[in-house]
Structures are given as C-alpha cells and as structure tokens.
C-alpha cells in the first residue's frame, strides 16, 4: 500500500487539472461515480480501485500529452477526482522516524 502513496505523491499534472479535480471533490459519490468510471457492477475496495484508476489515468495522461483527438478532459478530471477520494479511504502508512 505504501507504493500507492508513493505513486500518487509523485504524479505531476497541470495545475488546472488538479484544481478542477479538487473542486469536484464535494460532489463525489463513491457508489455512483466509481461504478460509472470503472464500468463495474460493484464498487471495489479503495486499494483495488486506486490500482485501476492509476492505470486509466496514465493512459489518459499519455493521450493528453500526445494531443490525441480522442482525449476526454472530463473523464480525466473524473478519474483524478476518484483517485483523490480513494486515497483518503486508505489506511495511512506508519510515520517514519
């Protein structure tokens, strides 16, 4: 699980994307939004969800950087919102001395 925190803490995305995702946090509904984003009948646990969300976000980021015409800004923001929300549900790693 520590690797999830490391992966997320090292992500570098445009400030506007991050601001939009932070703004959308107040409207996030895990059962509704995660099912829709993951196209799944049941909501996975936060760790499983984050692994899948990270994979999809990496694809979206590559698409954005390549200037792909099929890139969806809204989906990218939705995925980032879900990632931010799911990270909050993970148990915190022990503090290092």
Please explain how this structure is put together.
With about 100 residues, the protein is mostly helical. The chain has one domain. It contains five helices and no strands.
List key phrases describing it.
97 residues, 5 helices, 0% strand, mainly alpha
Question: What's a quick, concise take on this entry?
Answer:
This protein has 97 residues and is mainly alpha-helical. Helix content is 67%, strand content 0%.
Question: What does the secondary structure layout of this molecule look like, with pairings?
Answer:
Blueprint: H1 2-9, H2 15-24, H3 30-38, H4 46-66, H5 73-89
Helix pairs in contact: 2-5, 3-5, 4-5
Major pleated sheet:
none
> Looking at the structure, what is the overall shape?
globular
Q: What is the alpha-carbon Rg in Å?
A: 14 Å
Mean pLDDT: 89
Q: How many β strands by DSSP? A: 0
SSE topology string: HHHHH
Structural class, please?
mainly alpha
Low-confidence stretches: none
Oligomer: single chain
Distance between the termini: 19 Å
- Sheet-strand content, in percent, reads under 5%
């Amino acid at each position: 699980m520590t690797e999830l925190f490391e992966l997320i803490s090292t992500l570098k995305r445009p400030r506007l994307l991050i601001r939009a995702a932070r703004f959308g946090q107040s409207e996030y509904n895990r059962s509704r939004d995660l099912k829709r984003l993951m196209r799944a009948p049941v909501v996975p646990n936060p760790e499983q969800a984050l692994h899948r969300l990270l994979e999809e976000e990496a694809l979206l980021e590559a698409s954005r950087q390549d200037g792909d015409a099929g890139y969806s800004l809204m989906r990218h923001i939705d995925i980032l919102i879900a990632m931010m929300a799911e990270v909050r549900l993970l148990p915190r790693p022990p503090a290092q001395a």
